[in-house]
Amino acid sequence: MPQRTSIDVAALVVRIALGAIFLAVGGLKIAKGGPHGFAADIANYKVLMDPYNLILACLLIALEIVAGLCLLLGVLNRGAVLAGMGMTGLFLFGIVQGWVRKMDISCGCFGKSEMAVNYPLHTAGLLVLLGAFAFLWWAAGHRGAAYVFGGEKMKLPG
User: Fold this and answer.
1) Cα dihedral angle (46, 50, 51, 53), rounded to 10 degrees?
2) Which range among 117-121, 136-140, 142-146 shows the weakest confidence by mean pLDDT?
3) N or C, which end of the chain has less CB nearby within 10 Å?
4) Do 117 and 107 form a contact (C-beta atoms < 8 A)?
5) How far apart, in Å, do the first and last CA atoms of the chain sit?
6) Of 107, 142, 109, 90, which is closest to residue 82 (Cα–Cα)?
7) Nearest to 71 by CA among 136, 115, 119, 8
8) Do the Cβ atoms of 123 and 129 come closer than 8 Å?
9) 40: helix, coil or strand?
């Protein structure tokens, strides 16, 4: 087994931190308004029509929780990293288009809230998350996906 480097340790810390963030954010969305509350926040961006907001809200909450658990537990990490990058990119698109359109809305990032979104702060935070996911992807290429993302592939007995 190759010796662990500082990149490996950093990747582990980043993976666990991202997992905890996504699990917590998904849980907060359920606790504060549930899918209907998050769907209302999505509707405020005026990008989708009404029946699709609830479908997207349910999918995003479930995906946040599953991706967060996978990252925390170290299973299906490549898929969780890709899902996290996709969701973060989607959230970044939503925030930036709201900022460009000068919308005064709640982002819904941490569940139902009455506070208007701070666009520069949210954009910077999402860019940091995107950078963290990109680092995990790079670290896997640097050391080998099987090494960074949780060991060898499962082998069938026999």
Assistant:
1) 40
2) 142-146
3) C
4) yes
5) 23
6) 90
7) 136
8) no
9) helix
Helices assigned H by DSSP within 1-148? 6-31, 34-44, 50-73, 77-100, 119-143, 145-148
The pLDDT tens digits for 20-57 are: 999 999 999 999 888 998 888 888 888 888 889 999 99
Q: Which of 90, 70, 92 is nearest to 81 (CA)?
A: 70
The vertex-52 CA angle with 82 and 93, nearest 5°, equals: 45
Q: Which amino acid is at 24?
A: A
Q: Compute the distance between CA of residue 156 and CA of residue 148 in angstroms, rounded to an integer.
A: 22
Closest CA to 109 of 79, 154, 64: 64
How does DSSP classify residue 111?
B
Mean predicted lDDT score pLDDT of the chain: 84
Q: How many C-beta neighbours within 10 Å does residue 154 have?
A: 5
Residues near 22 by beta carbon (within 8 Å), at least 6 away in sequence: 64, 65, 67, 68, 71, 84, 87
Report the phi/psi class of residue 137: left, alpha or beta, with left for phi > 0 and alpha for psi in -120 to 50: alpha
pTM of the model: 0.81
Token pair of 91 as six digits = 């959230």
